[in-house]
Amino acid sequence: MVNRDPDKTRLALLNAAFDEINQHGFQAASLARIIKETKVSKGALYHHFPSKLEMGYAVVDELILESVKEMWITPLKNTDNIIDALLLQIDSAIGKRNEKNICFGCPVNNLAQEMSPIDEGFRERINSIFDLWRTTIDEKLKEGQKNGTVKETINTEASAYFIVAAIEGATSLAKNAKSVDVLRTSLQGLKEHIETLRK
Amino acid sequence: MVNRDPDKTRLALLNAAFDEINQHGFQAASLARIIKETKVSKGALYHHFPSKLEMGYAVVDELILESVKEMWITPLKNTDNIIDALLLQIDSAIGKRNEKNICFGCPVNNLAQEMSPIDEGFRERINSIFDLWRTTIDEKLKEGQKNGTVKETINTEASAYFIVAAIEGATSLAKNAKSVDVLRTSLQGLKEHIETLRK
DNA sequence: TAACATGCATACTGGTCGGTATGTTTATTA
DNA sequence: TAATAAACATACCGACCAGTATGCATGTTA
Protein backbone atom coordinates (compact mmCIF):
# COMPACT_ATOMS: atom_id res chain seq x y z
CA MET A 1 0.00 0.00 0.00
CA VAL A 2 1.59 3.27 -1.12
CA ASN A 3 -1.14 5.88 -1.43
CA ARG A 4 -3.47 5.83 1.54
CA ASP A 5 -7.05 7.01 1.24
CA PRO A 6 -8.98 6.04 4.36
CA ASP A 7 -12.31 7.34 3.04
CA LYS A 8 -11.93 5.31 -0.10
CA THR A 9 -10.94 2.23 1.91
CA ARG A 10 -13.94 2.62 4.16
CA LEU A 11 -16.32 3.04 1.24
CA ALA A 12 -14.85 0.03 -0.55
CA LEU A 13 -15.44 -2.06 2.56
CA LEU A 14 -18.96 -0.72 2.88
CA ASN A 15 -19.81 -1.51 -0.73
CA ALA A 16 -18.33 -4.99 -0.53
CA ALA A 17 -20.22 -5.60 2.71
CA PHE A 18 -23.42 -4.48 1.02
CA ASP A 19 -22.91 -6.97 -1.81
CA GLU A 20 -21.91 -9.73 0.56
CA ILE A 21 -24.96 -9.14 2.76
CA ASN A 22 -27.26 -9.00 -0.24
CA GLN A 23 -25.97 -12.33 -1.48
CA HIS A 24 -25.61 -14.29 1.75
CA GLY A 25 -27.55 -12.37 4.37
CA PHE A 26 -25.90 -10.62 7.30
CA GLN A 27 -25.27 -13.62 9.52
CA ALA A 28 -23.68 -15.64 6.74
CA ALA A 29 -21.78 -12.65 5.41
CA SER A 30 -18.10 -13.47 5.69
CA LEU A 31 -15.52 -10.88 6.68
CA ALA A 32 -12.93 -13.11 5.04
CA ARG A 33 -14.73 -12.79 1.69
CA ILE A 34 -15.12 -9.04 2.14
CA ILE A 35 -11.43 -8.45 2.75
CA LYS A 36 -10.55 -10.81 -0.08
CA GLU A 37 -12.86 -8.92 -2.44
CA THR A 38 -11.60 -5.48 -1.43
CA LYS A 39 -7.98 -6.55 -0.95
CA VAL A 40 -8.12 -4.70 2.36
CA SER A 41 -6.49 -6.33 5.36
CA LYS A 42 -8.38 -7.46 8.40
CA GLY A 43 -6.54 -4.93 10.52
CA ALA A 44 -7.74 -2.17 8.22
CA LEU A 45 -11.30 -3.43 8.40
CA TYR A 46 -11.25 -3.41 12.18
CA HIS A 47 -9.64 -0.01 12.12
CA HIS A 48 -12.67 1.39 10.28
CA PHE A 49 -15.36 -0.67 12.01
CA PRO A 50 -15.37 -1.87 15.61
CA SER A 51 -17.30 -5.04 14.79
CA LYS A 52 -19.18 -6.89 12.06
CA LEU A 53 -22.44 -5.70 13.60
CA GLU A 54 -21.41 -2.04 13.47
CA MET A 55 -20.33 -2.49 9.87
CA GLY A 56 -23.76 -3.91 9.11
CA TYR A 57 -25.39 -0.91 10.77
CA ALA A 58 -23.22 1.40 8.67
CA VAL A 59 -24.36 -0.39 5.51
CA VAL A 60 -27.96 0.30 6.46
CA ASP A 61 -27.39 3.89 7.58
CA GLU A 62 -25.15 5.00 4.77
CA LEU A 63 -25.98 2.84 1.75
CA ILE A 64 -29.42 1.29 2.04
CA LEU A 65 -31.16 4.30 3.55
CA GLU A 66 -29.67 6.58 0.92
CA SER A 67 -30.66 4.34 -1.97
CA VAL A 68 -34.21 4.12 -0.66
CA LYS A 69 -34.34 7.89 -0.41
CA GLU A 70 -33.08 8.26 -3.94
CA MET A 71 -35.44 5.69 -5.42
CA TRP A 72 -38.62 6.06 -3.38
CA ILE A 73 -38.59 9.23 -1.30
CA THR A 74 -37.11 12.09 -3.31
CA PRO A 75 -39.18 11.46 -6.46
CA LEU A 76 -42.34 11.67 -4.36
CA LYS A 77 -41.33 14.82 -2.52
CA ASN A 78 -40.93 16.74 -5.78
CA THR A 79 -44.32 16.09 -7.31
CA ASP A 80 -47.75 17.68 -7.17
CA ASN A 81 -49.50 14.56 -8.39
CA ILE A 82 -48.83 11.60 -6.10
CA ILE A 83 -50.85 9.15 -8.20
CA ASP A 84 -48.87 9.79 -11.36
CA ALA A 85 -45.63 9.83 -9.40
CA LEU A 86 -46.33 6.45 -7.80
CA LEU A 87 -47.22 4.86 -11.13
CA LEU A 88 -44.05 6.26 -12.64
CA GLN A 89 -41.96 4.99 -9.75
CA ILE A 90 -43.36 1.49 -10.09
CA ASP A 91 -42.61 1.37 -13.81
CA SER A 92 -39.17 2.74 -13.13
CA ALA A 93 -38.57 0.06 -10.50
CA ILE A 94 -39.64 -2.66 -12.93
CA GLY A 95 -37.44 -1.17 -15.63
CA LYS A 96 -34.37 -1.32 -13.44
CA ARG A 97 -34.75 -5.06 -13.00
CA ASN A 98 -33.39 -7.72 -15.28
CA GLU A 99 -33.02 -11.48 -15.08
CA LYS A 100 -29.59 -11.04 -13.54
CA ASN A 101 -30.42 -8.75 -10.63
CA ILE A 102 -34.02 -9.76 -9.94
CA CYS A 103 -32.84 -12.59 -7.69
CA PHE A 104 -31.35 -10.18 -5.12
CA GLY A 105 -34.72 -8.73 -4.16
CA CYS A 106 -35.03 -5.61 -2.04
CA PRO A 107 -32.10 -5.06 0.35
CA VAL A 108 -34.38 -3.52 2.95
CA ASN A 109 -36.75 -6.43 2.91
CA ASN A 110 -33.94 -8.98 2.89
CA LEU A 111 -32.40 -7.55 6.03
CA ALA A 112 -35.79 -7.01 7.62
CA GLN A 113 -36.73 -10.66 7.24
CA GLU A 114 -33.44 -11.98 8.47
CA MET A 115 -32.42 -9.63 11.24
CA SER A 116 -35.50 -8.06 12.75
CA PRO A 117 -36.25 -11.03 15.03
CA ILE A 118 -32.61 -11.35 16.06
CA ASP A 119 -31.17 -7.89 16.52
CA GLU A 120 -33.00 -4.83 17.73
CA GLY A 121 -30.46 -2.44 16.20
CA PHE A 122 -31.17 -3.73 12.72
CA ARG A 123 -34.90 -3.86 13.35
CA GLU A 124 -35.11 -0.25 14.48
CA ARG A 125 -33.03 0.99 11.57
CA ILE A 126 -35.06 -0.93 9.00
CA ASN A 127 -38.31 -0.01 10.66
CA SER A 128 -37.44 3.67 10.44
CA ILE A 129 -36.75 3.26 6.72
CA PHE A 130 -40.16 1.68 6.18
CA ASP A 131 -41.69 4.44 8.32
CA LEU A 132 -40.03 7.15 6.28
CA TRP A 133 -41.26 5.59 3.06
CA ARG A 134 -44.80 5.00 4.29
CA THR A 135 -45.26 8.39 5.95
CA THR A 136 -43.97 10.11 2.82
CA ILE A 137 -46.67 8.39 0.77
CA ASP A 138 -49.25 9.13 3.46
CA GLU A 139 -48.42 12.84 3.55
CA LYS A 140 -48.50 13.17 -0.21
CA LEU A 141 -51.84 11.37 -0.38
CA LYS A 142 -53.23 13.78 2.21
CA GLU A 143 -51.78 16.68 0.21
CA GLY A 144 -53.42 15.22 -2.88
CA GLN A 145 -56.75 15.16 -1.13
CA LYS A 146 -56.36 18.88 -0.48
CA ASN A 147 -55.26 19.87 -3.98
CA GLY A 148 -57.89 17.68 -5.60
CA THR A 149 -55.82 14.92 -7.16
CA VAL A 150 -56.75 12.20 -4.64
CA LYS A 151 -60.17 10.90 -3.66
CA GLU A 152 -61.24 12.35 -0.31
CA THR A 153 -62.92 9.16 0.93
CA ILE A 154 -59.84 6.95 1.14
CA ASN A 155 -57.93 6.18 4.31
CA THR A 156 -54.51 7.56 3.38
CA GLU A 157 -52.68 5.77 6.17
CA ALA A 158 -54.05 2.34 5.23
CA SER A 159 -53.34 3.04 1.56
CA ALA A 160 -49.75 3.96 2.32
CA TYR A 161 -49.21 0.78 4.31
CA PHE A 162 -50.83 -1.26 1.58
CA ILE A 163 -48.72 0.24 -1.20
CA VAL A 164 -45.45 -0.40 0.61
CA ALA A 165 -46.56 -3.94 1.50
CA ALA A 166 -47.57 -4.72 -2.07
CA ILE A 167 -44.28 -3.46 -3.51
CA GLU A 168 -42.24 -5.47 -1.01
CA GLY A 169 -44.38 -8.56 -1.53
CA ALA A 170 -44.13 -8.34 -5.30
CA THR A 171 -40.35 -7.90 -5.13
CA SER A 172 -40.15 -10.91 -2.85
CA LEU A 173 -42.24 -13.12 -5.15
CA ALA A 174 -40.21 -12.05 -8.16
CA LYS A 175 -36.95 -12.71 -6.34
CA ASN A 176 -38.02 -16.22 -5.55
CA ALA A 177 -39.38 -16.87 -9.04
CA LYS A 178 -36.29 -15.26 -10.58
CA SER A 179 -38.61 -13.53 -13.01
CA VAL A 180 -39.13 -9.91 -14.02
CA ASP A 181 -42.47 -10.98 -15.49
CA VAL A 182 -43.64 -12.04 -12.05
CA LEU A 183 -42.67 -8.60 -10.75
CA ARG A 184 -44.53 -6.89 -13.59
CA THR A 185 -47.64 -9.01 -13.24
CA SER A 186 -47.74 -8.71 -9.45
CA LEU A 187 -47.38 -4.93 -9.61
CA GLN A 188 -50.04 -4.63 -12.32
CA GLY A 189 -52.69 -5.17 -9.67
CA LEU A 190 -51.11 -2.49 -7.50
CA LYS A 191 -51.13 0.00 -10.36
CA GLU A 192 -54.83 -0.62 -10.93
CA HIS A 193 -55.44 -0.14 -7.22
CA ILE A 194 -53.53 3.13 -7.22
CA GLU A 195 -55.64 4.35 -10.17
CA THR A 196 -58.74 3.91 -8.02
CA LEU A 197 -57.29 6.41 -5.52
CA ARG A 198 -57.44 9.13 -8.18
CA LYS A 199 -60.18 11.70 -7.86
CA MET B 1 -33.22 -44.45 25.95
CA VAL B 2 -35.54 -47.34 26.70
CA ASN B 3 -38.59 -47.07 24.45
CA ARG B 4 -37.62 -46.34 20.86
CA ASP B 5 -39.98 -44.57 18.51
CA PRO B 6 -38.12 -43.51 15.37
CA ASP B 7 -41.12 -41.72 13.84
CA LYS B 8 -41.54 -39.68 16.97
CA THR B 9 -37.82 -38.91 17.09
CA ARG B 10 -37.83 -37.81 13.47
CA LEU B 11 -40.87 -35.58 13.96
CA ALA B 12 -39.38 -34.05 17.09
CA LEU B 13 -36.24 -33.17 15.12
CA LEU B 14 -38.33 -31.78 12.29
CA ASN B 15 -40.39 -29.58 14.59
CA ALA B 16 -37.34 -28.33 16.43
CA ALA B 17 -35.63 -27.61 13.12
CA PHE B 18 -38.69 -25.67 11.99
CA ASP B 19 -38.58 -23.50 15.10
CA GLU B 20 -34.82 -23.05 14.88
CA ILE B 21 -35.03 -22.04 11.20
CA ASN B 22 -37.89 -19.67 11.88
CA GLN B 23 -35.91 -17.94 14.59
CA HIS B 24 -32.43 -17.85 13.11
CA GLY B 25 -32.85 -18.63 9.42
CA PHE B 26 -31.56 -21.80 7.80
CA GLN B 27 -27.90 -20.89 7.51
CA ALA B 28 -27.64 -19.77 11.11
CA ALA B 29 -29.76 -22.65 12.36
CA SER B 30 -27.60 -24.67 14.72
CA LEU B 31 -27.76 -28.46 14.83
CA ALA B 32 -26.27 -28.24 18.30
CA ARG B 33 -29.27 -26.20 19.48
CA ILE B 34 -31.69 -28.58 17.76
CA ILE B 35 -30.28 -31.67 19.46
CA LYS B 36 -30.13 -29.81 22.75
CA GLU B 37 -33.77 -28.80 22.42
CA THR B 38 -34.98 -32.27 21.42
CA LYS B 39 -32.55 -34.17 23.69
CA VAL B 40 -31.79 -36.31 20.64
CA SER B 41 -28.17 -37.24 20.01
CA LYS B 42 -26.22 -36.11 16.99
CA GLY B 43 -25.90 -39.70 15.83
CA ALA B 44 -29.68 -40.05 15.88
CA LEU B 45 -30.08 -36.82 13.91
CA TYR B 46 -27.71 -38.01 11.23
CA HIS B 47 -29.43 -41.37 11.22
CA HIS B 48 -32.69 -39.70 10.23
CA PHE B 49 -31.27 -37.02 7.92
CA PRO B 50 -28.21 -37.29 5.71
CA SER B 51 -27.32 -33.61 6.08
CA LYS B 52 -28.50 -30.28 7.42
CA LEU B 53 -29.62 -29.33 3.92
CA GLU B 54 -31.79 -32.44 3.54
CA MET B 55 -33.29 -31.79 6.94
CA GLY B 56 -34.16 -28.28 5.77
CA TYR B 57 -35.78 -29.68 2.66
CA ALA B 58 -37.81 -32.07 4.81
CA VAL B 59 -39.01 -29.15 6.92
CA VAL B 60 -40.30 -27.46 3.78
CA ASP B 61 -41.80 -30.59 2.24
CA GLU B 62 -43.43 -31.99 5.32
CA LEU B 63 -44.18 -29.08 7.64
CA ILE B 64 -44.30 -25.80 5.76
CA LEU B 65 -46.08 -27.09 2.66
CA GLU B 66 -48.68 -28.84 4.79
CA SER B 67 -49.34 -25.78 6.94
CA VAL B 68 -49.77 -23.63 3.84
CA LYS B 69 -52.22 -26.13 2.43
CA GLU B 70 -54.17 -26.17 5.66
CA MET B 71 -54.27 -22.40 6.02
CA TRP B 72 -54.49 -21.11 2.47
CA ILE B 73 -55.33 -23.87 0.01
CA THR B 74 -57.94 -26.19 1.51
CA PRO B 75 -60.29 -23.41 2.69
CA LEU B 76 -60.35 -22.05 -0.86
CA LYS B 77 -60.96 -25.41 -2.53
CA ASN B 78 -64.12 -25.95 -0.51
CA THR B 79 -65.96 -22.75 -1.34
CA ASP B 80 -68.29 -21.55 -4.03
CA ASN B 81 -67.63 -17.89 -3.30
CA ILE B 82 -63.94 -17.08 -3.63
CA ILE B 83 -64.36 -13.44 -2.64
CA ASP B 84 -66.00 -14.23 0.67
CA ALA B 85 -63.55 -17.05 1.28
CA LEU B 86 -60.54 -14.80 0.71
CA LEU B 87 -61.87 -12.11 3.03
CA LEU B 88 -62.53 -14.74 5.68
CA GLN B 89 -59.05 -16.19 5.29
CA ILE B 90 -57.44 -12.79 5.73
CA ASP B 91 -59.39 -12.08 8.90
CA SER B 92 -58.53 -15.54 10.15
CA ALA B 93 -54.84 -14.97 9.44
CA ILE B 94 -54.94 -11.69 11.35
CA GLY B 95 -56.79 -13.35 14.20
CA LYS B 96 -54.11 -15.98 14.61
CA ARG B 97 -51.46 -13.34 15.19
CA ASN B 98 -50.56 -11.79 18.50
CA GLU B 99 -47.74 -9.58 19.73
CA LYS B 100 -45.75 -12.68 20.62
CA ASN B 101 -45.79 -14.53 17.30
CA ILE B 102 -46.07 -11.61 14.88
CA CYS B 103 -42.30 -11.22 14.84
CA PHE B 104 -41.77 -14.62 13.21
CA GLY B 105 -43.44 -13.60 9.97
CA CYS B 106 -44.34 -16.12 7.30
CA PRO B 107 -42.09 -19.21 7.24
CA VAL B 108 -42.39 -19.49 3.48
CA ASN B 109 -41.36 -15.91 2.91
CA ASN B 110 -38.56 -16.11 5.47
CA LEU B 111 -36.97 -19.07 3.73
CA ALA B 112 -37.66 -17.61 0.30
CA GLN B 113 -35.81 -14.42 1.10
CA GLU B 114 -32.84 -16.13 2.67
CA MET B 115 -32.32 -19.24 0.60
CA SER B 116 -33.65 -18.66 -2.89
CA PRO B 117 -30.51 -16.85 -4.10
CA ILE B 118 -28.23 -19.41 -2.47
CA ASP B 119 -29.71 -22.84 -2.95
CA GLU B 120 -31.75 -24.03 -5.90
CA GLY B 121 -33.32 -26.89 -3.94
CA PHE B 122 -34.90 -24.48 -1.48
CA ARG B 123 -35.87 -22.07 -4.22
CA GLU B 124 -37.70 -24.69 -6.26
CA ARG B 125 -39.55 -26.04 -3.26
CA ILE B 126 -40.64 -22.60 -2.09
CA ASN B 127 -41.50 -21.53 -5.60
CA SER B 128 -43.79 -24.51 -6.02
CA ILE B 129 -45.55 -23.57 -2.78
CA PHE B 130 -46.15 -20.04 -4.04
CA ASP B 131 -47.28 -21.51 -7.38
CA LEU B 132 -49.75 -23.82 -5.71
CA TRP B 133 -51.18 -20.97 -3.68
CA ARG B 134 -51.39 -18.55 -6.58
CA THR B 135 -52.85 -21.01 -9.10
CA THR B 136 -55.46 -22.08 -6.58
CA ILE B 137 -56.62 -18.49 -6.26
CA ASP B 138 -56.45 -18.05 -10.02
CA GLU B 139 -58.57 -21.12 -10.72
CA LYS B 140 -61.19 -20.15 -8.16
CA LEU B 141 -61.37 -16.62 -9.56
CA LYS B 142 -61.94 -18.08 -13.03
CA GLU B 143 -64.57 -20.39 -11.57
CA GLY B 144 -66.16 -17.37 -9.92
CA GLN B 145 -66.31 -15.60 -13.25
CA LYS B 146 -68.28 -18.56 -14.59
CA ASN B 147 -70.69 -18.89 -11.70
CA GLY B 148 -71.26 -15.15 -11.51
CA THR B 149 -69.55 -14.24 -8.25
CA VAL B 150 -66.50 -12.55 -9.81
CA LYS B 151 -66.33 -9.66 -12.24
CA GLU B 152 -65.64 -10.92 -15.77
CA THR B 153 -63.37 -8.03 -16.74
CA ILE B 154 -60.55 -8.72 -14.30
CA ASN B 155 -57.30 -10.44 -15.14
CA THR B 156 -57.48 -13.39 -12.77
CA GLU B 157 -53.81 -14.30 -13.09
CA ALA B 158 -52.62 -10.80 -12.22
CA SER B 159 -55.09 -10.61 -9.36
CA ALA B 160 -53.85 -13.89 -7.93
CA TYR B 161 -50.23 -12.73 -8.05
CA PHE B 162 -51.20 -9.43 -6.49
CA ILE B 163 -53.13 -11.03 -3.64
CA VAL B 164 -50.28 -13.35 -2.70
CA ALA B 165 -47.77 -10.51 -2.96
CA ALA B 166 -49.87 -8.21 -0.79
CA ILE B 167 -50.34 -10.85 1.92
CA GLU B 168 -46.62 -11.65 2.00
CA GLY B 169 -45.68 -7.98 1.99
CA ALA B 170 -48.08 -7.14 4.79
CA THR B 171 -46.80 -10.05 6.88
CA SER B 172 -43.27 -8.86 6.29
CA LEU B 173 -44.01 -5.27 7.32
CA ALA B 174 -45.83 -6.45 10.43
CA LYS B 175 -42.98 -8.77 11.35
CA ASN B 176 -40.53 -5.91 11.18
CA ALA B 177 -42.80 -3.51 13.04
CA LYS B 178 -43.64 -6.22 15.61
CA SER B 179 -47.23 -5.06 15.37
CA VAL B 180 -50.51 -6.83 14.65
CA ASP B 181 -52.00 -3.40 13.95
CA VAL B 182 -49.59 -2.94 11.07
CA LEU B 183 -50.74 -6.30 9.69
CA ARG B 184 -54.38 -5.33 10.05
CA THR B 185 -53.96 -1.90 8.51
CA SER B 186 -51.82 -3.20 5.63
CA LEU B 187 -54.35 -5.91 4.81
CA GLN B 188 -57.28 -3.49 5.02
CA GLY B 189 -56.30 -2.14 1.62
CA LEU B 190 -56.16 -5.67 0.23
CA LYS B 191 -59.62 -6.45 1.53
CA GLU B 192 -60.99 -3.36 -0.18
CA HIS B 193 -59.25 -4.39 -3.38
CA ILE B 194 -60.72 -7.88 -3.18
CA GLU B 195 -64.18 -6.37 -2.74
CA THR B 196 -63.78 -4.63 -6.09
CA LEU B 197 -63.34 -8.04 -7.74
CA ARG B 198 -66.90 -8.95 -6.76
CA LYS B 199 -69.51 -8.90 -9.49
C1' DT C 1 -32.04 -67.97 19.65
C1' DA C 2 -28.80 -66.55 16.26
C1' DA C 3 -28.01 -63.19 12.76
C1' DC C 4 -28.82 -58.90 11.14
C1' DA C 5 -30.55 -54.28 10.54
C1' DT C 6 -32.28 -50.26 12.67
C1' DG C 7 -31.87 -46.72 16.00
C1' DC C 8 -29.13 -44.20 18.90
C1' DA C 9 -24.87 -42.34 21.63
C1' DT C 10 -20.04 -40.32 22.20
C1' DA C 11 -15.98 -38.47 20.94
C1' DC C 12 -13.66 -36.49 17.61
C1' DT C 13 -12.10 -33.87 13.02
C1' DG C 14 -11.01 -30.21 9.82
C1' DG C 15 -12.53 -25.90 8.70
C1' DT C 16 -14.48 -21.36 9.24
C1' DC C 17 -16.00 -17.84 12.07
C1' DG C 18 -15.47 -13.06 14.36
C1' DG C 19 -12.23 -10.88 16.91
C1' DT C 20 -7.46 -9.52 18.87
C1' DA C 21 -2.50 -8.75 19.85
C1' DT C 22 1.19 -6.74 18.01
C1' DG C 23 3.83 -4.70 14.85
C1' DT C 24 4.96 -1.60 10.76
C1' DT C 25 4.16 2.05 7.62
C1' DT C 26 2.35 6.45 6.31
C1' DA C 27 0.47 10.97 7.41
C1' DT C 28 -0.08 14.92 10.53
C1' DT C 29 1.43 18.31 13.57
C1' DA C 30 4.26 20.60 16.99
C1' DT D 1 12.63 16.97 12.04
C1' DA D 2 10.93 14.75 16.09
C1' DA D 3 6.81 13.13 18.19
C1' DT D 4 2.42 11.41 17.69
C1' DA D 5 -1.54 9.61 15.67
C1' DA D 6 -3.87 7.40 11.93
C1' DA D 7 -3.89 3.66 8.67
C1' DC D 8 -2.84 -0.69 7.59
C1' DA D 9 -0.73 -5.68 7.87
C1' DT D 10 0.09 -10.45 9.86
C1' DA D 11 -0.33 -14.06 12.77
C1' DC D 12 -2.88 -15.95 15.85
C1' DC D 13 -6.98 -17.26 19.24
C1' DG D 14 -10.95 -19.74 21.18
C1' DA D 15 -15.59 -20.83 19.79
C1' DC D 16 -18.54 -22.90 16.99
C1' DC D 17 -19.77 -25.23 12.86
C1' DA D 18 -21.39 -29.46 10.03
C1' DG D 19 -20.13 -33.84 9.55
C1' DT D 20 -17.89 -38.62 10.72
C1' DA D 21 -15.94 -42.80 12.91
C1' DT D 22 -17.00 -46.07 15.90
C1' DG D 23 -19.46 -48.69 19.01
C1' DC D 24 -23.48 -50.13 21.59
C1' DA D 25 -28.45 -50.99 22.41
C1' DT D 26 -32.75 -52.25 20.67
C1' DG D 27 -35.93 -54.30 17.45
C1' DT D 28 -36.87 -57.62 13.58
C1' DT D 29 -36.61 -61.75 11.16
C1' DA D 30 -34.92 -66.39 9.87
Main attributes of the structure:
homodimer, about 200 residues, mainly alpha, about 75% helix
Question: How would you describe the overall organization of this protein?
Answer:
2 copies of one chain form a homodimer. The first copy, chain A, is mainly alpha-helical. The first copy, chain A, is 75% helix and 0% strand. The first copy, chain A, has 9 helices and no strands. Chain A has helices at residues 6-24, 31-38, 42-48, 52-77, 82-95, 107-115, 120-147, 156-177, 180-195. In chain A, helix 5 packs antiparallel against helix 9 (180-195). The model of chain A has no long low-confidence stretch (mean pLDDT 96). Chains A and B meet through helix 6, helix 7, helix 8 and helix 9 of A and helix 6, helix 7, helix 8 and helix 9 of B. The structure holds a DNA duplex (30 and 30 nucleotides).
Secondary structure: elements and pairs:
2 copies of one chain form a homodimer.
Chain A lengths: L5 H19 L6 H8 L3 H7 L3 H26 L4 H14 L11 H9 L4 H28 L8 H22 L2 H16 L4
The first copy, chain A, binds a DNA duplex (30 and 30 nucleotides) through helix 3.
